[in-house]
Amino acid sequence: MSSSAAPDGAPLALTMGEPAGIGGEIALKAWLRRGDLPPFFVVDDADRLEQIAHELRIDVPVRSVTTPAEAPDLFSEALPVLHHPLPAKSVAGRPNPANAPAVVASIEIAARLAHSAAAAAVVTNPISKEALYGCGFAFPGHTEFLGALAGSNATPVMMLACAELRVVPVTIHVSLAEAIRVLDTDRIVDAATVTANALKNDFGIARPRLAVAGLNPHAGEGGAMGHEDADIVAPAVAVLRDRGIDTFGPAPPDTLFAPTARTGYDAAICMYHDQALIPLKTLDFDGGVNVTLGLPFVRTSPDHGTAFDIAGTGRAREASLVAALHMAAEIAAHRAATRT
């Protein structure tokens, strides 16, 4: 991927993520690739990052900054950190509930800085939702939390993207049974409309093409395998076409992600979490990026979790974070160009 730069010189804000996970390690390793990255700073505990660098023998100098504006000039020499101390010592692989408020605060700080344009975008390191629930965190994940931080005018939609595919799950962090229960035409239309607008404004695609996956095998096969595709999905496709959005479907999910099929659309609207994430992660597990569409600020994230099993071992790969940093800067640049 080519080097990218955020507009107006503002750096990207990277959150700490779960301190017991791999977020600190991949942040340090990403900085080692700084020659091909836009400047970023981390909202994190500077002492924690120095400790990780020392223990894993990652040669990265860490420097505290007081404002994001200091980060670009410092970035070539050291990893800039907007210091936010942890209440308790972090141990790799063992999340400590005492640190949960600091994890949430890191996201809030980064979002506020991006909303005010002090940061060009938010890039979030993976969190452990289970570790946050004890401090009153009431959201299924980053997407919903950032939507709440953005205010009532935001319509957050999750997109997963890599070089070969973009997918949007209409229902996200719910059971499969619940996903089928809550799926309706309006949800599909809303997610697809936000996606089409974002493809224009965030990705520079003048006339986006959307594929809408069917819910059932063979997209219901004329009702032989379920009625939802005819009763819920097909009407959504009709509404989107009436709005002037280039859309087709419901398409059989088992053929929608084949190489030839992928050339026919810019994003696939999927009915549930795994329908979207399995093909994306199969195609590019290390390079996939989670993007939140429909926010007034840009947000991306690596498309992986906290990886407690390898935290502290030095084996974490930074490729997805690097891709997320590039994509954040590219989206911010597209938005800036759209505004001018």
Please provide a brief summary of the model.
By secondary structure, the protein is an alpha/beta fold. It has helices at 23-31, 46-55, 71-74, 100-115, 129-133, 142-150, 176-182, 185-201, 228-242, 253-256, 259-262, 273-283, 319-339; strands spanning 12-15, 40-44, 62-65, 79-83, 122-123, 157-161, 166-169, 209-213, 246-251, 267-270, 289-293, 299-302. A twelve-stranded mixed β-sheet has the order 3-4-2-1-5-12-11-6-7-10-8-9, sandwiched between helices.
Write the layout of secondary structure elements.
Layout: E1 12-15, H1 23-31, E2 40-44, H2 46-55, E3 62-65, H3 71-74, E4 79-83, H4 100-115, E5 122-123, H5 129-133, H6 142-150, E6 157-161, E7 166-169, H7 176-182, H8 185-201, E8 209-213, H9 228-242, E9 246-251, H10 253-256, H11 259-262, E10 267-270, H12 273-283, E11 289-293, E12 299-302, H13 319-339
Parallel strand pairs: 1-2, 1-5, 2-4, 3-4, 5-12, 7-10, 8-9, 8-10
Antiparallel strand pairs: 6-7, 6-11, 11-12
Helix pairs in contact: 8-9
Features of the shown structure:
Isopropylmalate Dehydrogenase; 16% strand; 340 residues; 13 helices; alpha/beta; twelve-stranded mixed sheet
Structural description of this entry:
With 340 residues, the chain is an alpha/beta fold. The protein folds into 2 domains: 1-156 and 295-340, Isopropylmalate Dehydrogenase; 164-283, Isopropylmalate Dehydrogenase (3-Layer(aba) Sandwich). The chain has helices at 23-31, 46-55, 71-74, 100-115, 129-133, 142-150, 176-182, 185-201, 228-242, 253-256, 259-262, 273-283, 319-339, and strands at residues 12-15, 40-44, 62-65, 79-83, 122-123, 157-161, 166-169, 209-213, 246-251, 267-270, 289-293, 299-302. The chain has a 12-stranded mixed beta sheet with strand order 3-4-2-1-5-12-11-6-7-10-8-9, with helices on both faces. The two termini are 26 Å apart.
